[in-house]
Amino acid sequence: MSTTLHDVARHAGVSIKTVSNVVNGLGRVSAATRERVLASVAQLDYRPNLSARSLRSGRTGVIGLAIPELSLAYFAQLADAVIEEAEQRGLVVLIEQTRGGARNRELELLRGPQRQLTDGLIFSPFGMIEEDTEFLDIGSPLVLLGERLPGASVDRVTMRNVEAGAAATASLLKLGRERVAVIGAHLDARLGSAVLRYEGYVQALREHGIELRDELVVEVDLWHRSNGAKAMRELLARGEPFDALFAMNDELALGALRVLQEDGIDVPTDVALIGFDNVDDGRFSRPSLSTVDPGRPEIARMAIELLLERIGGATTDDVAPRELQSPFRIIERESTSGA
Amino acid sequence: MSTTLHDVARHAGVSIKTVSNVVNGLGRVSAATRERVLASVAQLDYRPNLSARSLRSGRTGVIGLAIPELSLAYFAQLADAVIEEAEQRGLVVLIEQTRGGARNRELELLRGPQRQLTDGLIFSPFGMIEEDTEFLDIGSPLVLLGERLPGASVDRVTMRNVEAGAAATASLLKLGRERVAVIGAHLDARLGSAVLRYEGYVQALREHGIELRDELVVEVDLWHRSNGAKAMRELLARGEPFDALFAMNDELALGALRVLQEDGIDVPTDVALIGFDNVDDGRFSRPSLSTVDPGRPEIARMAIELLLERIGGATTDDVAPRELQSPFRIIERESTSGA
DNA sequence: CGCCAAGAATACAACGTTGTACCAAGCCCT
DNA sequence: AGGGCTTGGTACAACGTTGTATTCTTGGCG
């Protein structure tokens, strides 16, 4: 077994509590004993038992991050940012995948035994519906990512999806394009990024006095690359001409790009293209992909800040939930270059 | 506070240990009391305190996964597989990033307090050198991914990098190409995938009676997409003709592809291209990317199996370390299509 | 009818840590 | 010189769980 406070205490000839105080920098300890204890700690290679510490303190130093899928670049990069941000605050991150965001998976995960292991959870919901908000009461701090479940009174980090969607669309319109298609819509949904980004799209069209054409709107359930390709084939099959495309995320955009090129359609000359998320891949596609940068580091930072406020605050319940918004910016690359 | 065994015991009118037995399915409990206890458990929504359980049992149910960077698609997908595999065995995964695999970061991570929190560690080393092997003695089970630190007597999961490198190269040669470039080499290193894959490259050339030309070998430190682009510019600048390219991973390949296309060089007509890792992105690039599939799910499964054997085994020390090899296969896509 | 074994449940300690309460000096002040 | 105060340290309990040893039933059997 590894060394404990007892071992160190015996070795240094002090009480176990004094060692504890030295290790945690608490209480008053004379310089002499402190040094003696530290020497013993070093010599015996003492490392505190985190389970015991957690049992006493009620804190584990672990936070959970629940996302749909790590193999989607957006979430991988988000996880990266969260881990980085957590590390700076002395926390470690337990990642859980909801796998396509199936509702049941999400509910299970909210009630799973892992919750006992984490001081709080950062959760990017996808499949849950409004009736499920009661399940969000998990007994430990929770921060939602995104605009789903708007009814729930929980801390959350969102972005200006409507404005961002409008800005993306506008960046296409300002090139003089007038037939702007969009893929990734969830027309019969009432919630989620898809709804908001679509709203931005519609809004931008209106502001520029351009008619909204349903034939240029393609719905896509999961925003995977393969579905982007499928959506583009569908759009092409419709035979409706278009000269610009707003893809609701970069995966869709890159999937669509591939199909456009297969058909000999040049981007950006024939079709200007913009995605969403600023995933690394877009920088090296050909043409490189214009996109909306959602401010991932900020999202991570804000989420952890909200979480830590709850974790730290003794009386967590009576504080009203907060919503923080991350800044976004349009990144113009080759896929919308003047041409 | 949440409900404890005490609460349930009082509620069901039994002893605390009986509740514990019921919850864990241990000991002999009559059907009647079992039912009564389970009813109380459900009613009070009892969930065991994992810290306390860990303190008693010495197990946390958490395993660590230390990788260079989650934003590299290969590692994101690997992490995905590990989490999935762990979940099936009732474990959760703590992901730690070594950020480009700096040696110090790796050593810190091996000694960090997190080790007290995990039952074992799956570690993909990058910057550590052979002199550091002593640091691998972390007091809990450890499985290495890859061939680094060959001197260390630790469990590990590897792949037939030499054979795979040779197979990739051969798949280019069999197209009739004779000037096969390679990017990603670490010529003055003695260890690592780069060395082995390069060895396979050399070997395949020799077997096909093709001369090895140093001018067609480009070194790349970190196998990022941007470095792939840089390497390709360097290769083009050399002015040495080549008609095929083996990129040591898909990121390099996609970065290189982009630069080739900028220069109007057609893939696969002018240059046939194969990568390594079978990252999702390669399926939707244009042309789609031929690659080597390293068997990620198998790697994840093997790593966890090795880890669990150590964790389970009472006398862990006297069992000789094992090495498992994952199967690989060549995936031919457009970037090496006959043409 | 009395004894024993097996079945069912309990009491208690321990895992390693930290918070609370307490104690022993030494010092200053009146 | 004795009361209060600061400084440095200790003893003990508690966090919630589980392993070990123990007790209490009960029914079967000689």
Automatic annotation (TrEMBL), chains A, B:
PROSITE patterns: HTH_LACI_1, HTH_LACI_2
InterPro entries: HTH_LacI, LacI/GalR-like_sensor, Lambda_DNA-bd_dom_sf, Peripla_BP_I
Domain HTH lacI-type: 3-57
Keyword line: DNA-binding, Transcription, Transcription regulation
Presence of keyword Mitochondrion: no
Domain of life: Bacteria
TM region positions: none
Ranges in a coiled coil: none
Molecular-function GO terms, alphabetical: DNA-binding transcription factor activity; transcription cis-regulatory region binding
Record flagged with keyword Transcription regulation: yes
Protein name, as recorded: LacI family transcriptional regulator
Lineage: Bacteria, Bacillati, Actinomycetota, Actinomycetes, Micrococcales
